[in-house]
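Why should sequence recovery work at all? Because a backbone constrains its sequence more than one might expect. Tight turns favour small or flexible residues, buried strands favour hydrophobic ones, and helices have their own preferences. The token representation captures these environments compactly. In the example below, the structure is given first.
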């Protein structure tokens, strides 16, 4: 189903946890530019981990690499990263909630860091690895799974299908890394995307836009659902997401995404898995469609 609305910036305030990460990334990047010892201490390296600087598995992804001193290119790079985190982070928080966003953001960074460190250690590389993309692209990938049919306006001007936009970012990033022989960055990015994929799949109990993966995804969703229900807890699969009309800026109900999520749940677990609220909203959506 195509979405007639563009995914626009929300007029709602920026969530506090997102403000925290935006501020942290800004301050850490400025610190790396002005203090030469900041990057060796917080960037990921084989030597650092050998010296028990275990925070490097996470901290490497919280600031932009600086070649020494503040530069115009560093400011542009930081601004672009902050923009990506702001626009995609708000949508993910709105859909998944703050706690899951934190797990997604930090988990993508840590998994990417562990993978990059493993390669650095295998190659005995003296490189100090700094790259926020594993955490940022993990959030972007999760957003794409949640909003596969959405159209994003990059910088309010260039319309992109969500999946195509992701392919462009990933393709360019991987090509740049591979052309420069930056293997730690490439493997960290791929590992972070894998984490974001399974995290979103399991936490939201929904199929991804990659149809060739659906048979495996259904098995994973069923297995994870049994594990979640084993302690006696029930968790709602769908979390509403606000979509904004490009003309009025007013929020509209994303009925198509809701129906897709509910139909996926029915196909996996049957109609008895629907809550009374889910059934009521589905009836309301169906009634509106019949009137058209």
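From this structural description, the recovered sequence reads:
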């Amino acid at each position: 189903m195509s979405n007639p609305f563009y995914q626009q910036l929300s007029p709602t305030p920026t969530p506090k946890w997102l403000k925290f990460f935006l501020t942290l990334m800004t301050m850490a990047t400025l610190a790396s530019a002005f203090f030469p010892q900041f990057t060796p201490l917080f960037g990921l390296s084989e030597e650092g981990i050998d010296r028990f600087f275990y925070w490097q598995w996470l901290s490497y992804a919280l600031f932009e690499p600086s070649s020494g001193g503040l530069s115009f290119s560093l400011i542009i790079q930081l601004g672009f990263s902050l923009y990506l985190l702001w626009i995609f982070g708000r949508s993910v928080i709105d859909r998944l909630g703050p706690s899951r966003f934190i797990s997604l953001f930090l988990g993508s960074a840590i998994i990417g860091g562990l993978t990059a460190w493993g390669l650095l250690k295998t190659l005995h590389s003296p490189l100090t690895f700094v790259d926020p993309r594993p955490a940022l692209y993990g959030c972007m990938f999760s957003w794409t799974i949640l909003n596969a049919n959405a159209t994003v306006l990059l910088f309010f001007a260039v319309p992109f299908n969500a999946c195509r936009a992701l392919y462009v970012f990933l393709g360019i990033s991987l090509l740049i890394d591979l052309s420069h022989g930056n293997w730690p960055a490439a493997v960290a990015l791929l590992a972070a995307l894998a984490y974001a994929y399974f995290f979103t799949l399991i936490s939201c109990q929904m199929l991804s836009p990659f149809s060739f993966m659906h048979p495996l995804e259904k098995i994973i969703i069923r297995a994870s659902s049994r594990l979640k229900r084993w302690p006696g807890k029930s968790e709602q699969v769908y979390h509403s997401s606000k979509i904004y009309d490009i003309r009025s800026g007013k929020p509209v109900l994303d009925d198509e995404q809701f129906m897709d999520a509910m139909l996926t749940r029915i196909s996996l677990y049957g109609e008895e898995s629907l809550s009374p609220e889910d059934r009521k909203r589905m009836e309301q959506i169906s009634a509106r469609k019949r009137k058209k």
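A few observations help interpret the result. The CA atoms of residues 83 and 155 lie 9 Å apart.
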